[in-house]
Amino acid sequence: VSRQLKEEIRRGFARLEDPLAGLLAMLESSSDWKRKGHSLGYCITTELQLWIKAHPAVPQSGTKLKKLQARVLGMLSQCPANLLDPLISIYQLHAADRNYLLEHVSHLYLQGSYKEAAILSIKLKLQPDQDVEKMCTPLLLQDKVNLVEDYVAEYPELQRKLLQTLDTWCDPSFNIRDIARPYQGLSGYKPEKLNRRVLGKLIFRLLERFSVDPALCPNVVNQRHLRTLNYLFYKRFVEKTMTEENWADHIQSTVGENRWLQGHLVQLLLRHCGKRGTARWARHCRVLPEMLPQAVAEELQKLHIQGRVEEVTKAGNYEASKKKDYYQLPIPWENIHFLQTWEEMLQCWEKVLQPGQVVGVDMEWKPSFGMVGKPRVALLQLALKDEVFLLDLPRLLEQAEGEKLPHFIQMLYSDAAITKLGYGMSGELSSLAATCSALKDMEKQMQGVVDLLAVDKQKFDGLSPEHSHKERGVRRPEKGLSLLVQHVLGKPLDKTEQLSNWEKRPLREEQILYAASDAYCLLEIYERLCKDPESFGLGLDLTASLVGKQSKKPKAKKQLNKQKAPSPFGQECQGPRTEPSGSPAPISAQEFSVVCDNMLQGLGRYLRCLGVDVRLLDNEDDHRKAAEIARQEGRVILTSGLPYQTLRSQVGEGRCFSVNCSEKAKEQALQVLKHFNVQVSLSDVFSRCQ
């Protein structure tokens, strides 16, 4: 709005005997103000608001003001959002008769203007005198969840009433159609948005947003616990990836003394464990006797009589012989240090905070299974070349010297001279901040970090978990860090302890080994990538490829990129493998025979055009088929990225070549021809084409 127009508007108000009545008369005679944005009506209204502040004597009171308030109230339901506050301020609606305002909003509601009634209630702060269920039900049926949240945002008591109402709707015996029936003609009517699953997610989000005790919503909490129960039974008896002791911990903490959940637990036990197993676990989980079917109760009585009530054993799903299928921690047990006191922490402090140090970092927390709140870190693992430190965070933070721990962690993450290795560090740091508020801004200060998840996503997506599954022939495909460990180090991580109760003390031996392995494997992955970056499709400048936010100063980053990446095993990381100085003997294109992996079909076709004898794998072929063809027909394997690691060990030295996938087929072909000293003559070109 130009200064000239503003001045003209103000001069106009100064000439009016009653500016408030004048503004209303103008708005009532025009429809310009009803459109969104900065209409002329909006400009005049906001200028009057400013003019009134400069002329305090202007505002009116008494009967005349009440008449103006009645007129403006009739306009508010048609107002764009940006006009509401100025008009409410000018006509002092906050000070108007509350019953009159409530009556007006009720009239809007009865007309079916539910959104307008709610917005006006929020602006005039009428919510404490309204029925929260009545006001919010039509809004929820129209999927106006944000407006519902705004409606209760400043009123804790209304938040609790809303959550209790929503939880009532989640009762298995409640029929959602009963509340939806009166609103069937509603515009934007979306009753499907009120199914129990959607409502459950909404309730948990509101519980977290408003910091309300989940115990207020027993129906939705029970449903979430039931889903957790089903998940735990799937992990234990179908997928078979959870140890018995680990599973029992979670079953007990999930069910507790809740009779409804105990009933479902008994049904699940009968389905998976039979009568005898159900009796044993019912005893272990302290299920009330009246919850047991007669056949199970009789079996439990037999166990009592025979004195054969079995305790949970420490045996896991996997026999010791199967452990060889998984990554093994290469350092001895005595080099794993579980730290619970500040005196123990000092040795860790001195060794970890050394310039040039490379540290594998991982964290563990108790699984929340979808309950409210961010997980709190129960264990922080720091792996060095020869030892691993496991920090008992809850115990260390509660000690007198607890404030020193955040300082140590900040020093570690902010020191560019120390390389920190992680996998999915952003999520871990978020949980760390929830555990200790002093660490909430640490992500902004990070330097010298290497998140191997970024490398995994960029470079190793070519081998899907399904391929890995076929290669190993095990129950389920690997994923995440376990899949990366398998790709780079040859064997996956044993994840049977992943869903442990990490807050329970003492930790079991299996938990300690799992936690140490999770952090230490990062060192070995990094070392392997440093030694042979080309084989994994990484750039020659490994530091630039891997190292994350090093420094806010561009100069420092440039200098760092010129250095070789530090190695956790005391050597500098090597660049790409250098070929022997002597070139292989020349070979003609007709004599040169290759098998191309399925991600290099473009290269294969290009080489065939040059006269090379080429076999191409189909898209659905397993990478291992290339090794079979190479051995049977004496061909060289051309592959890229991760499959190179698998295939090169299955053929003779020099019979497997890793091609740069980021280049075009022509450049790839030139690379292959140069490496194998293949001579292409004019007569070779198109000689194999039909």
Would you kindly provide a written description of the structure presented here, covering whatever features stand out?
With 690 residues, the protein is of the alpha/beta class. Among the domains are: 220-305, no CATH class; 334-458 and 479-546, Nucleotidyltransferase, domain 5, CATH 3.30.420.10; 587-684, Rossmann fold. The chain has 31 helices and twelve strands. The chain has a six-stranded mixed β-sheet with strand order 1-4-3-2-5-6, sandwiched between helices. It has a four-stranded parallel β-sheet with strand order 9-8-10-11, with helices on both faces. It has a two-stranded parallel sheet with strand order 7-12. Strand 8, helix 28 (601-609) and strand 9 form a beta-alpha-beta unit. Helix 24 (480-489) packs across helix 25. The model is unreliable at 308-319, 462-475, 548-564 and 571-581 (pLDDT under 50).
